Amino acid sequence: MTHPKPPSPRDPAVPADVGLDETVAPPTPVPGAVRPTAPGVRPAHAETAPLGAQDSLSGFDVALAPGAEAGEYVIEARIGEGAFGDVYRASHPLIGKVVAVKVLKMRYSVDPEIVSRFVAEARAVNTIQHPHIVDIFAFGALPDGRQYYVMELLEGRALRDELAARGALGLAEAVQILAPIAEALDAAHAHGIAHRDLKPDNIFLRGDAQRGWRPKLLDFGVAKLLHDDDVAHGTATGAPVGTPAYMAPEQCLGRDVDTRADLYAFGVVAYEVLGGALPFTGTSAFELMSQHIHAQAPRLDTLNPALPDAAVRLIDALLAKDPGDRPAPLTAVADHLRAAAAGAGDPVREVLSSGQLTVPRPAFAEPKPRGWPTPAVAFAVAAV
């Protein structure tokens, strides 16, 4: 059965101050898409920023020439460029290890708050150390003061690109991607870290549908270390941070968020992967966030009737408006998705009786509208 393809993230028919799939991270400019310059190679950190964004200090950001050094690594070529920084392919001259080096642009290297977020991303990833999270293993500064970190270099494509090319995936194939990402998020949560910007752009795929997918979770650039409010928050009070198409209701309202916002975003991603479309659409980011707060998503099996009811209800539960109604931990969600794909009974009913998932029974019933307020007018998106 052919399923509808998700809308292009750059569909010109979607007018908005900010793309519906772009990161909202006030008070700094919204970050924009990395533009790889080497075919078939994408750095293990995909940055998102407004197309056409201008860097007033770009004259100071001299591209690193082949042979330049970033710590122990020798630059080979620039492979990506974004609003916040450039990404280079590099190698270790003695052991030959090939890596990606992300260099923060000069205008941000002199901004203490941005540097704090940049350092916090490296710190967060290094703290988690999970096989399905991109590895960042070195940090430093160039002689001109620009900050950089060194990470593994991945070759493949983003989940966003796979969905754009193919549309919805079957449950068995989707679980190869979703289950490891759920486990990676759960590992972050165990370290007190909420990602806060989960989306198909930040899930990188190695392998293929025939040999099996090996996904990696990327871009902890707006991650929040929940035990450290002074590091990596990068927000103004009352201002939402994230990507509107994937933001939890509480996130849209600019409230403090915890790991349960990631549960909601995971539900949105799972819905898109299995249904070939987002649960909510709108002509502006504000309208889209209003739907996250007030509207109920169409049942997933209306888009993909082949899905087992157990999987449909599990994803419905992840999209609960009340954070306390979302099933957790994500490792258990991963297990039950695998069970649903294998046709092993009704994992939702079984988990309700076992108590393995910390979610009340009503969360798996048909969703009921809730009295959430309107999105905060403090929705501050930097116009580009």
Describe this structure in words.
With 384 residues, this protein is α+β, with helices and mostly antiparallel strands. The protein folds into two domains: 42-154, 2-Layer Sandwich (Phosphorylase Kinase, domain 1); 157-364, Orthogonal Bundle (Transferase(Phosphotransferase), domain 1). It has helices at 106-109, 112-128, 159-166, 171-190, 249-252, 260-275, 285-294, 309-318, 330-342, 347-354; strands spanning 42-43, 69-70, 73-81, 85-91, 98-104, 136-141, 147-154, 157-158, 193-194, 203-208, 212-217, 224-225. Strands 1, 2, 3, 4, 5, 6 and 7 form a seven-stranded antiparallel beta sheet that branches. A three-stranded antiparallel beta sheet has the order 8-10-11. Helix 4 runs antiparallel to helix 9 and helix 6 packs across helix 8. The chain is globular.
